[in-house]
Each structure stands twice: as structure tokens, then as C-alpha cells.
Amino acid sequence: MRSYEEEEAHLLKQLGVRVIFMEDVQTHGLAWAMQEALEIACKETAGYGLSLDLAAIAPRAAPGVGTPTPEGLHGPELVACIGLLTHRRGFLGLEIAEYNPLHDQDNRTARLVCDLVRASFAEVRENIL
């Protein structure tokens, strides 16, 4: 989480939701954050999905969003790490949100989305073929 409103923070705290802040990701790394999230998502559940808001990625790698925010995730690091979330038992699906082709530059965001989808399902495809 990079930004939030006070009401959101209060509700999340009240519900006991574990929040991983961008500062934690910068300190410990994206792979660490994904492992933390997986431990929570896989505990006593039938499965989990991944919703990826492209605005969470640094604008240099993903300019094709409606609300770019500086200091986001690094695109290549996300592609390299996404398999940690998607190649596990219980993974049910991937949602990619907030792509805006009108803001994309040289199709950078579109190419990143393709790379993320390929990396997410590469193991699945290899097992099918």
C-alpha cells in the first residue's frame, strides 16, 4: 500500500487486515512482500486470486494508467517475481486493472501487461503442452 485515506486505515485496522506498505517493499524487497501476502492468502482458504492495479507500477515502466503515482513497483522486478504468487497450488486467477491505452507511450504498458500474463501462466502452459 502506497497511499490511503484515514477512514480506510481505520477500517483495515478494525478488521485486523495485515497491510504491507511500500516502505516495507523498499526495505525488504518485492519477493519478501509476496511471501508475506501468500502466507496470509493461503492460510485456511480454498484458493486466492491476484488483482494487480497497474497504477502500483512506476510510471516509467507503466505510463498507460489513469492515475500514475511516482515511486511504484519496478516493472521488470514484478515480472520476475509474479510467479511466486501465480505458480502455487490454490492460485485461481489474475485480474489486471487500470490500463488506459490513451496514456500509454510506445506501448510500454501493453508490453508489460503481456510480460506479466506470460510470466503468470508460463508454468501452467508448460504443464499442458
Model description:
The protein is mainly α and 129 residues long. It has a single domain (6-128), classed as Arginase, Chain A, CATH 3.40.800. It contains six helices and two strands. It has a two-stranded parallel ribbon. Helix 2 crosses helix 3 and helix 4 (75-81) runs parallel beside helix 6 (108-128). It starts with 5 loop residues before the first helix and ends with a helix. The relative contact order is 0.15. Residues 125-129 have low confidence and may be disordered.
What is the distance, rounded to the nearest whole angstrom, between the alpha carbons of the first and last residues? 37 Å
Spell out the helices and strands N to C.
Answer: HHHEHHEH
Strand order of the largest sheet: 1-2
- As a whole number of angstroms, the C-alpha radius of gyration is 15 Å
CATH class: Alpha Beta
Number of separate structural domains: 1
**Structure class:** mainly alpha
How many DSSP-defined strands? 2
* Low-pLDDT residue spans: 125-129
Give the amount of beta strand, in percent: 5-15%
| CATH-level-4 superfamily name | Ureohydrolase domain
Structural descriptors:
2 strands; disordered C terminus; mainly alpha; 129 residues; Arginase, Chain A
Write the layout of secondary structure elements.
Layout: H1 6-15, H2 22-28, H3 30-41, E1 48-53, H4 75-81, H5 83-86, E2 91-97, H6 108-128
Parallel strand pairs: 1-2
Structure summary:
The protein has 129 residues and is mainly alpha-helical. The protein has a single domain, classed as Ureohydrolase domain (Arginase, Chain A, 3-Layer(aba) Sandwich), CATH 3.40.800.10. It is built from six helices and two strands.
